[in-house]
Amino acid sequence: MELKSIKDAFDRVATKQKLSYNKTNEIVHMLSQEIDKALSIIKESPSDTVLDHRSIISDVKKAFVGIAPVTQLEAAEKELHVALTKYPKVLEKQLNPDISKAYRNNAEFDTHIVNQIIANFFYRQGMFDIGDCFVAETGESECSTRQSFVEMYQILEAMKRRDLEPALNWAVLNSDKLKQARSDLEMKLHSLHFLEIAQGKNSKEAINYARKHIATFADSCLPEIQKLMCSLLWNRKLDKSPYSEFLSPALWNNAVKELTRQYCNLLGESSESPLNITVAAGTQTLPVLLKYMNVMANKKLDWQTMEQLPVDAQLSEEFQFHSVFVCPVSKEQSSDENPPMMMSCGHVLCKQTINKMSKNGSKSSFKCPYCPTDVDISRCRQLHF
Amino acid sequence: MEIDTVTNGNSDAVMTETAPTITPSPVVPSSRSSQLTESLKLEHQLLRVPFEHYKKTIRANHRSFEKEVSTVVSSVGDLADSDWSKDATVSRLTSLVSRLQGLKRKLEEGSNVENLQAQRCRARIDHLDSVDVENITEWNNTKLKRILVDYMLRMSYFETATKLSESSNILDLVDIDIFREAKKVIDALKNREVASALTWCADNKTRLKKSKSKFEFQLRLQEFIEMVRVDTAESYKQAISYARKHLAPWGATHMNELQHVLATLAFKSTTECSKYKVLFELRQWDVLVNQFKQEFCKLYGMTMEPLLNIYLQAGLSALKTPYGFEEGCTKEDPLSQENFRKLALPLPFSKQHHSKLVCYISKELMDTENPPQVLPNGYVYSTKALKEMAEKNGGRITCPRTGFACDYTELVKAYIS
Questions:
Q1: I want to staple A83 with a disulfide (CB 3.0 to 4.6 A). Which of A16, A93, B35, B238 is the partner?
Q2: Average pLDDT of span A108-135
Q3: Most A CBs within 10 Å: which of B25, B62, B323, as the mutation test of the A interface?
């Protein structure tokens, strides 16, 4: 795509518009000048001879014919018209003129669901004013997650002010669930608190805090605890110590990120807004789909009823939430009935493919399609990703 | 603790470096920047709508100037041909002068409006130009807001649309004023008044004619039906003369519909004949509203559907996997949310040509840099995550899903092509 050609085409429009404006202005000016001139002549002429002022008027008329204002205006418009018709053509050529070609008309969305998703999005992003306005204007029922997100933003706001208390309260209250999710959020928050104490006040209080709150994490975070305690040796000169990393604002950012993620997960929500993710995935998918539609334009294509997309959208990594195994031989996605199997050489195929290669088990071994190994069927084993 | 990442625990694993016999074509990941270019191509509406608006203003202004100028010219002509006294002539000329002055003012005002609209067109081109790999996250957030505003405007949620645009500073990138124009017509139609819709048709006559729109005809038909509905001798007379004046011209191209609707004269609004009963239903006004919306979108070069729906459909399809509908699906997947599942239900599943494995522990992609390792129980995790676990636990590995425990040395590398 060439943004420059779009810009150029638009510049042409703007230039012609200016020219046309100037022309019109000029014509209007000339016309009024002629009339003004005639007026002053008539007014100054002493006698009231009818003929006199009539001849002056017919001079004006002649002058007008000479100027030919309407023809001039039309000519100016014609030039402008050319530029005006060209610009949309440039747009259509450089951009996708109709992205709804990839839209399925038979999958109409339920407006209520879409509205609920949008309301939830605003609350999720901390835009409570706009969320409330939206809920009121659409007449949707109050969003059930609103209060939870209000609390989340209170905790995050406090963290911005370096006040860890609300965050710690929440983490302690949900300690079991956090452990289940294998999150080290609690430890992260306690470490931050510990460092704050060590920086501001005496080491003794910090040690007491560590004994009381941090020691319990020895099972999972021993190396971190060692580092934290060691950092006390440098006390107020942390910046010149091997532990200067403890001063990095990144620690706080990570804690904020982890808290958001865990808070949302416990609510049953994703840490990134799901609306954001889906629209971003759509942005990557649409060009692929549209290209496909263009190529297949002449083929009879049942886009409206397809059960699987005809092309791989090749989304980037951040959209890969599940392990998808595609058998390199059969090109089929694995499933419970057709699970991935690893052969003794370490290469992985689908069960059905292995069955085929071993003639349904009638052969006790076959050659791996990827390396020279003779594969013993009894030693193939199912994998769980 | 020693961790040998290379040794395959299996004694007969003969992983030589010989090239595999079948090499599936490698996935060429489209680079970020080409992805960016592709996504910019989706922004046709963003540039087209303000331009159509601009063009409309230019055309309307030009037409009115041309008209004024030719009126002045012909007035002078008339003056020259008639027999006025000197005073009358002077007063005529003076009024022409002030008329030209008025035209000058209008020209100035018109040009100001045109310039503002041109600026808006430029702002949007610049907005597309401003995106690069660094600010893409922020740019995408703005894009989502633009898409949401587009949705709200089409649904007539003006208050929130305005509030969101103002607070996000994107007024130049959304089309609130254009939709306000549509709202007037829609509101009138909802009140069962066609006047403003007809005015709109007259304003956009040439464009509508070009696209062979029959919207005006449909409005006229509805007006006719409303006269029949009144059911008095006077109203029938009125209906017939209305039909002669406004419906007959459409006969050449839309005879069937014309006949169909005119036959309502024979049926009263209380008719049970289903074909005619439907014409008298008030629902017809909603049909007109929808028709108007479509004509309106077409005229401005907008998509018929809200952008949000188009993006959501594509995104949901690309994200839709059988796993998303399973119990215990990761909450990070939008398809784990009930509302998103409902929307995705009628949509196609995604398609993947190549394996992509995500580590259960770290959620990171398992590829050649972070290859998958198999525990003796068949469960697979990424090398990075297992190494970290082993380092913390003196070389021991515990499978997080089954509780199975083993030594790091017992792991086997899996080769996924």
A1: A16
A2: 95
A3: B62
Q: How far is CA A264 from the centre of its chain?
A: 19
Indicate yes or no: CB of B55 within 8 angstroms of CB of A277: no
For A357-361, B320-324, B401-405, which range has the lowest pLDDT when averaged over its residues? A357-361
HSE-CB at A214 with a 13 A cutoff on CA atoms is 24
Choosing among 3.90.226.10, 3.30.40.10, 3.40.50.2300, 3.40.1440.10, the CATH entry for B356-416 is 3.30.40.10
Distance in angstroms (rounded) separating the CA atoms of residues B308 and A131: 17
Average confidence score pLDDT of chain B: 88
Residue A300 confidence (pLDDT): 64
Tell me: pLDDT of B29 over 60: no
Domain ranges of chain A: 3-95, 143-267, 340-382
Q: Name the pTM for this structure.
A: 0.87
**So what's the pLDDT on residue A201?**
65
Q: Give B184-211 pLDDT, tens digit per residue.
A: 999 999 999 999 999 999 989 888 998 8
Closest partner residue to A130 among B151, B164, B352, by Cβ? B164
Q: Which of B30, B94, B415 is nearest residue A314 as measured by Cβ atoms?
A: B30
Between A213-217, B235-239, B337-341, the lowest mean confidence (pLDDT) is in A213-217
> Where exactly are the structural domains of chain B?
45-130, 181-304, 308-345, 356-416
Closest A-chain CA to B21: A370
Choose the closest CB to B339 out of A73, A113, A373: A113
B391: left (phi over 0), alpha (psi -120 to 50) or beta: alpha
Instruction: Answer yes or no: do A133 and B13 touch at CB < 8 A.
Output: no
> What's the one-letter identity of residue B44?
H
For B273-296, the pLDDT digits (tens) are: 888 888 888 899 999 999 999 999
Report the gap between the CA of A202 and the closest CA in chain B (Å).
31
Give mean pLDDT, residues B397-405. Answer: 90
Q: Do A321 and B107 touch (CB under 8 A)?
A: no
| Per-residue 3-state assignment (H helix, E strand, C coil) for chain A | CCHHHHHHHHHHHHHHHHHHHHHHHHHHHHHHHHHHHHHHHHHHCCCCCHHHHHHHHHHHHHHHHHHCHHHHHHHHHHHHHHHHHHHHHHHHHHCCCCHHHHCCCCCCCCHHHHHHHHHHHHHHCCCHHHHHHHHHHHCCCCCCCHHHHHHHHHHHHHHHCCCCHHHHHHHHHCHHHHHHCCCCHHHHHHHHHHHHHHHHCCHHHHHHHHHHHHHHHHHHHHHHHHHHHHHHHHHHHHHHCCCHHHHCHHHHHHHHHHHHHHHHHHHCCCCCCHHHHHHHHHHHHHHHHHHHHHHCCCCCCCCCCCCECCCCCCCCHHHCCCCECECCCCCCECCCCCCEEECCCCEEEEHHHHHHHCCCCCCCEEECCCCCCEEEHHHCEECEC
Instruction: Chain A: give the shortest CA distance to residue B77, in Å.
Output: 6
Contact check, Cβ <8 Å, B315/A6: no
Buried b (16+ CB within 10 A) or exposed e, B200-233: bbeebeebbeeeebbbbbbbbbbbbbbbbeeeee
Tens-place pLDDT, residues B76-100: 888 888 878 888 888 888 999 999 9
Residues of B in contact with A144 (CB under 8 A): none
Instruction: Name the residue among B304, B334, B415 with its Cβ closest to that of A278.
Output: B334
Q: Determine, for residues A321 and B48 on separate chains, whether the beta-carbon distance falls below 8 Å.
A: no
Question: What does the alpha-carbon distance between residue A52 and residue B225 come to, in Å, rounded to a whole number?
Answer: 63
pLDDT reported for residue A51: 58
Interface test with A, best of B98, B380, B396, B399 (most A CBs within 10 A): B380
